[in-house]
Every structure is written in C-alpha cells, then in structure tokens.
Amino acid sequence: MSIDEVAGELYGLDPGEFVSTRTERAAQARADGDRALAKAITALRKPTIAAWTVNLLARHAPKEMAALLDLGDALRSAQRQLSGDKLRALGTQRQQVVNAMTKRAGELAAEHDRPASEQVLREVGQTLTAALADPDVADQVRAGILPATVTYDGFGPAGLVAITGGKTSAPTERASTRRPKPSAEDTEAARRAEAQQELDDAESGLQAARTDREEAETAAAQAKSDLEQTEARIAELRAELEHAEQQRHFARTAEHRARGELASARSQFDRMQRWVDRARARLDEK
Fold first, then answer.
1. What does the alpha-carbon distance between residue 230 and residue 284 come to, in Å, rounded to a whole number?
2. Rounded to two decimals, what is the model's pTM?
3. Per-residue pLDDT at 169 exceeds 90
4. DSSP string, 201-266
C-alpha cells in the first residue's frame, strides 16, 4: 500500500465516506509498522464538494479531460510565442470546452446523488481554467486527487499565481524559467492579445448565456403550453364527469321506478295466479 494508491482510493469516494476510510487506511498502515505512511494518509485533506466534482469528472470523463488539458499546452505555447491570432482562436475554444466540461461535471454529480449548485459549478469552471494555465494543477486534476478548488490570476507561463484552497502557491519551476526580457512592442502585443482574449472569452460567455436564456425561454413556453393543455383537459374531464353524474342520477331514478313497477307487476301476477287457481278448484268441484 502506497500513499498514491490510498489517495487514488480516497479521492474517488463520496465525500461522506472519506474520513472514515482515511482513518481505516491510516490504522492499517500503523498496524503494518509504517508510521510515515500512516502520517501521510492522515494528512490527506477531505475534498470540498466542488473539488470532489472535479475529481469525479476526471475519473468518469478521462478522454475529455485529456483533450482539455492538451488545449492548455497549446495555450501556453501560443502565449510564449506571443501569437495573438492563435491565442484568440484557442481562447474561444478554451471557454467553450470549459463550459461543456463544467456542464458534464454537473451531470455526473447529479448522477451520483450530489446535484451541484451554481457556486460549485462556478468553482469547477475556475479550477478547469486554472488547470489550463498551471501544469501542476493540471497534473492534480488529471489524477483526480484534488482536495480543494483552484482559481488562477492571470494567464501565461510567466508569473503564474495559482490560489489553491485560499492559499497562494509560488510559481512553478517550469513557469519561472528565465527568459530574455521582451521588447516594448512584444509586451504591448502580448497585452493586446491578452485583452483581446479576455474580450473573446467574455463574448463567448455572453453567447453561452444567451443560448441558455433562449433554451430556458423555450422550455418555459413549452411548460406553459403543456400546463394550458392540461388545464383544458381537466376542464373537459370535469364537464364529462358532471354529465356522467347527471346520467347516473337519471339512471338511478329510472332504476328505482322500474323496481317499483316490477314489484307491482309481480304482485298483480300473484293475484291473478291465485284467481286462476280458485277458479279451477271450483270447476273441479262440479
């Protein structure tokens, strides 16, 4: 049993099972005489709901997650090359993929009986965006062992600042590698490219929101139409029920009258039968 195996197991569990299973694995390590492993297991943090949702996504949609993180490599490469056109194209694609993956994460969470709130989905989207920028975050996301969500301040390989669980981590070694100081023109081009990318992301987000609004309006209109049809059908059924109740009343009255007439007819028949019997008897006497 290794810490990687235990972490892989724990972060794949429902959050409600994390602490008890962590305690069991730590106790098992101590029983095996591996106190260092027991200490490392105990130090593993229970994931937040949003982090668990990201881990769930990594485990149940590995191909889609790999495609997302490959996009991060392309974005960092374009940033290093100061390729404005490429950054704009990849930036739009990034927003679309992040939105799609966030939606998929929400679906998976619902399937596992933990529907995601808007705040949780927002944190999932922020974490996926951070994974695109920071290779270290990407590794955690890919492995599905994220204890807390991550936000990212800025974009590009230089000066990475990843904020994990409310704490700021230092730039990664790969990000802090020394590079020649860019010229003023390159800096301005990079600034404009980043601003353009932000605009493209915002417009992409606006388009996604517009689509969601239109879909919601269509769904609301359909629901209203369905309600009106149902209410109309209820009114029809109520009218039919009222008519049927009237028919039942008439039928009940007719049945009551018929039973009276039947009783009267039977009584009359009995009288006539007795009359016939008496007549026959007198005839026989003569």
1. 78
2. 0.51
3. no
4. HHHHHHHHHHHHHHHHHHHHHHHHHHHHHHHHHHHHHHHHHHHHHHHHHHHHHHHHHHHHHHHHHH
